[in-house]
Fold this sequence. Notes:
Elements (H helix, E strand, L loop, with lengths): L3 E3 L4 H6 L5 E6 L4 H16 L5 E6 L4 H6 L7 E5 L6 E4 L4 H8 L11
Parallel strand pairs: 1-3, 2-3
Antiparallel strand pairs: 2-4, 4-5
Amino acid sequence: xxxxxxxxxxxxxxxxxxxxxxxxxxxxxxxxxxxxxxxxxxxxxxxxxxxxxxxxxxxxxxxxxxxxxxxxxxxxxxxxxxxxxxxxxxxxxxxxxxxxxxxxxxxxxxxxx
Length: 113
């Protein structure tokens, strides 16, 4: 699944009601570190396709979401797991650090072969 852009109107369905874990990138077009983290999230979306969804939220276009989750610095990458409180990290994080911080390897799809 490709990375999906969420809005205040679609966030509930894409993230809060998702049956799978969702990694959410709170970002802005003018944010340099946000541009650096984008390829890492592309890798994450590819590696965990079908197991973990990846959603981006433009904080300038969706200020109510930023306020609701207390986003004060960007990029903020948050993991939403059904039934758990969201966890987040601030700043650029390569794929490997995101995997460790969020314990994503337990969601990795089984290798075919």
